[in-house]
Amino acid sequence: MTRPDTTRLVMKFGGTSMGDLERIRRAARIVAAEAATGKKVAVVVSAMAGKTNELVAWTDGAGPAGANLPLSDDEYDVVVASGEQVTSGLLAMTLRNMGLNARSWMGWQVPIVTDDAHARARIVDIPGDKLGAAVDGGQIAVVPGFQGVTPDGKITTLGRGGSDTSAVAVAAALGCPCDIYTDVDGVYTTDPRIESRARRLNKVSYEEMLEMASLGAKVLQTRSVELAMAKQVPVRVLSSFIEPDADGVMPDKGGTLICDEEEIVEKRIVSGVTMSRDEARITLLGLSDRVDAPADVFTRLAEASVNVDMIVQSQSRTPGAVNLTFTTGRRDAVRAAELMTAAKAQLGFEEIRVDEDVAKVSVVGVGMRSHAGVAQTMFKALADKGVKFQAISTSEIKISVLIDAAYAELAVRALHSAYGLETV
Questions:
Q1: DSSP state of 382
Q2: Which helix (H) or strand (E) holds 29?
Q3: E-state strands within 201-320
C-alpha cells in the first residue's frame, strides 16, 4: 500500500463552516495556520448553508418541461453548482487579502471528470498533475465541491453530500490525507444529543464508518467513505470552530481519524450505536407462496431503484400464502407501495400495509468478528427496557433492529450503556 504524502493536505469545509463571511474568514485563518506549518494545501468547499436548497427552488420555479420535451437536468446542474463557485471565490479572495497565494479552481479547470448522470454524477477521474504542481509551487488551491464536468465539457453535480466525496477524490488524486471540518469535533459513540455520556472516538475504521454513515450517522456521506476506503485516503473529522491562537498556531485539534483497520491497535467490540428515523416498513399480507414470488417483488423494486434493507418472511393465516415484510427509506415508501399495488394481481397478495412510525437502531464494531455474545447483549438490553423488535439485519460488523419509533432514543441509551461505550 502506498503511504500518503503528508507534505500535502486537502482540507474540506462544509456549508455550516461557509455559512457567512465571518465563518469564511475563520476558515481562512485555519487554512493559513496549516499553510504556515509548511503544508501544501488544497481546500474543497461547500456552498453556504441553505444556498443549494434556494438554488434548487429557483430551478423548480422555472417550471416543468413542456409536453414531449426532455428535462433540463444539464441546466439544473449549471444553476445548483453555482453555490460552491461563490464560496470558493470568496475563500480565495479572503486568503489573498491575508497576503497568501491562493486561487480558485473550478471543477472543469482541475478537471474533476464525471459521468453524464446530471444531478447525481459519479467521479470518473481527477488527473492530479496540474493541481499537484500548483500546490507544490506554494499556491493554496480552492476547489468547489459537489461539481464536476463531463468529458464533453458539461457541468455536473454529484448529488447531496457530494462535497465530501469531492474532497476525498481530490485527496486521492494528490495522494494525501484529507481533513474534513464540520460543525462537530469528530465521530462519537452515539449522538450526544440523545446520550450525554457519548464519547468522541480517536480512530474509526473505514468499514465501521461506512456502516455508521449508512445507518444514520450524519457526520460523513456514505459515498465519500466508500471512496476513502477504496483509495486508502486517511480522513480526519475536525471542528471548524477551533480557532488558531494569536500567533496563528492551531491548538490540539483532536478529531477522529478514519483509517484502515490495521492502524487501530485496540479493536473495540462495539464502536458506536446509531439511529435512523428515515425508515418505513412495508408488509405484503397473504402473498402467494410461490418459490419465485419474493424474486418478483424485489426485481420490481430494484428496477425502480428502490433500496431495500431488512427482509422478513413469515407464515400467513391464509393457507398457501406468506407475509413478506421489508424496509426502505421513507422517501421511497410511497413509490414502493404504488409499485406493489399496481402489480397486486401479478404478485398475488391480499393486502399491503405501510408503517412509517418505525426506527432502525444499530450497533457497529469490527470487534464483532472475533467476539461472541454481541447479539445476546443487544437483545437482553432491549428486553430489559421492554423494547420489542420487528425485524433484524446483520453483517460481519453490525446488528440492526427495527423498532417502534417511540422507543428509539430509549433503545440507543440502553445499548450505549450495555456495551460500556461511556468509558471508551
A1: H
A2: helix 21-36
A3: 203-205, 235-239, 256-259, 272-276, 280-288, 311-315
Residue 27: C-alpha distances to residues 12, 30, 239, 319 (Å): 10, 5, 11, 65
Q: Where are the beta strands (DSSP E) in 318-396?
A: 321-328, 351-355, 358-364, 389-395
Angle at 337 between CA 335 and CA 343, to 5 degrees: 105
Nearest to 27 by CA among 220, 219, 238: 238
From 277, 393, 279, select the one nearest 333 (Cα to Cα). Answer: 279
Q: Which residues pair with 143 in a beta bridge?
A: 44
**Pairwise CA distance, residues 74 & 78, whole Å:** 7
14-32 confidence digits (pLDDT tens): 999 999 999 999 999 999 9
Tell me the pLDDT tens digit for each residue of 322-345.
Answer: 999 999 998 899 999 999 999 999
Task: Write the pLDDT tens digit of every residue in 242-286.
Answer: 888 777 777 777 899 999 988 887 778 899 999 999 899 999 999
Average pLDDT over residues 2-8: 87
Buried b / exposed e along 100-127 (16+ C-beta atoms within 10 A)? bebebbbbbebbbbbeeebbebebeebe
- List residues bridging with 203 in a β-sheet: 257
